[in-house]
Design goal:
heterodimer, A: Heat Shock Protein 90, 3 domains, 15 strands, B: alpha/beta
Chain lengths: 608, 208
Amino acid sequence: MSWVTILWSMTAAACLTLAAIQFLVWCHRRTMWADLLFTLTATGVAVYAGCELWMIRAVTPAQFATALRWLQVPTWVVVVSLAGFVRLHLHAGRRWLAWSVFALRSLALLLNFLVGQNLNYREVTRLRHVPFLGESASLGVGVSNPCMIVGQLSLLLLVIFTVDATITVWRRGDRRQAVLTGGSIAFFALTGMAQAVLVLWRLVDLPLTESFFFLGIVVAMGFEMSRETLRAAQLSDDLRESEARMTLAAEAAGFGIWMWTLATNQVWGSERWLRLFGFEPGEAVTFEKLTQRIHPDDRERVASAVRHAVETGADYASEYRIMLPDGTVRWIAARGRKHPAPRGKPARMLGASIDITDRKQSELETAQQRNQLAHLSRVNMLGELAGSLAHELNQPLTAILSNAQAAQRFLAHDSPDLSEVRDILADIVAEDKRAGEVIHRLRLLLKKGEIQNLPLAVNEVVQEVLQLVRSDLVNQGFTAQTELAPDLPVVHGDRVQLQQVLINLVMNACDAMAGSPAGGRKLIIRTAPAEGEGVCVSVADRGVGLAPDKLETIFEPFFSTKAHGMGLGLSVCRSIITAHGGKLRATNNPKRGATFHFTLPAGAETKP
Amino acid sequence: MNNPEPTVFVVDDEPGVLKGLSRLLRSTRLNVASFGSPQEFLEQHDPHAPGCLVLDVAMPGLNGLELQAALAQKGSAIPIIFLTGQGDIPMSVQAMKRGALDFLTKPVNDEDLLKAVHAGIAKDRVARQAKAELDEIHQRLATLTPREREVMEHVIAGQLNKQTAADLGTVEKTIKVHRARVMEKMKVQSVAELVRLAERAGVRRSGQ
């Protein structure tokens, strides 16, 4: 075995090995075109080495010429794949330069097969034999082909293109990559070209050893590629670790993580999430299957929230109940967002869910306590109003009794006036209904029912309250004036509780004016559209007003200015208004007295 | 004197109650005039019209007690029967002190109301009769000359003609003539009768 055979074969073998490895890598990730280009380069270099060996061992000039002609094929492959590699791997270099390299080299290949024996010689006339590594190597002698310059130019262009790309990479800050890949390609290409020029123009007596320079390039590229592969492995490790960390954090926080692939309708969930929704670990969950777990009352609301998030890309957040297969009901809070489809992947929605049953439970208990307190304070308030309410009942009862007794007397007449009696009976029916109304309203106020969340017209509520307290006001010489804005937006809430707030405010206003002279006992109830969407209701008195430092403290529980007050009225009022999503506050009037204002958002839903 | 038929005036701000009470009163063939507010009544009321007033205590604007005071100021002595929704004791005491005839609690029974109304009408009739008599006495008194008035004051004081003549610086005979004129003008037969009339009219006695 001669040294020449060993060296060239090893070069070819090394290149083929690297090509094979990178080809396998490319097979796994088809999108990494740089891997394929590297494979092509390395394969090209291996073939190139074969052709070079063929030339060294050539026996006849014709053999040498043929070897040199076929050498142009791997050269084309190597040059073109290198240009492509630089563009794809370094993400740099001018596109037109790359295309110029491709065009020139292709032209060179075409000329190689069309003009003369090959690109370099029009005709190889004879062979010279020079000593090389203790052997004899064949060198061609003949008429040079002027087309050779096209090949040289394409190589020069490749070097310029590579240097330009390298500078860009360097400036970008990837200095290591610039030196290792760009630098080595430029350097070995340049030195290789120089050697070819020297050999082919017979300035030195040496055979072509381009493949060694190309090997240098391939090794540098291979090193870069393996580093890349290593980095990918590292990244995947990091990713796995980060995922583990996230899972741990989510687990610790009680979050279940889910991902819903819109196209396939499959929902992937972390173990925690699957447990949360009562699925078996590893169970395949579809969106429909998930929807079945949601409480029927909440299903439509959740579905529309999800639809909205999918259509607009907005954040999705909702709280809803689920029913587990064993019948238990849990409260879930979920948040998520649609992620735009990454290249080649379907759109997904990612999010996290958590069990908030305990929080909801305590919220519910708080609401119940608030409800109970509101009821207590209402009963207390109605106690104070008893006189007025008795009067409200007394009036229709008086009318009924008088009418009925009048009818008895009319009927006792010799010729009873029956049309009069008919009128009387109609009036009795009307008055009885009126008494029934009062009792009905009273019963509603006394009832300890579930909080209603229904659409209400605020002006109606004001009128109802005035009917309830009217006698009380009249008896004490108060006049109530109303300034009700028409066309107010509808609010949602509990009628009884809002009545309670208004009665409380009206009674407080009267208390504040207890010491006022007869002419000054006037209160005004106003309704107006609030800023934004909503309604503002105010109760103004002409009383003594409030001390500036008491404007807030009056809303604290057990604060009272009355001798017998529980001091709960205003604090309960404020909690009722707050639960309705509004605000209750007090201000002093510019001239006399104080005004209590509360707002109610339009169409707002109270917390359950 | 030809008094017109007495009327029951009803004042209540509650239309249903007003209608019911009026009907009840009309069913016993009483004359009824109803008013929806104290102001309305005050504007239209004729103090000479006989009858009584059925008045709700609690009304907006002018309440029952205030109307009572306003009527007293106008010199109307119409008997008032108060109606109240709630047996308000302080208010009823005040009303009775100011001369209210009765204080009834709603819902009011027909017997109670009618009894009170008839009592009111009777009281009004008596009061008006008394007032008419008094007016008559005053009219008679107005016909006396100053001298005759002086003589009458001495007569009702129980003085003899002689004493009177001495007091007034004249003779007994002249006094006798004056005395006969007084008895004639006052349309009385005896001194005792004259004393009674003078007392009712509040004529002071001489020397007292």
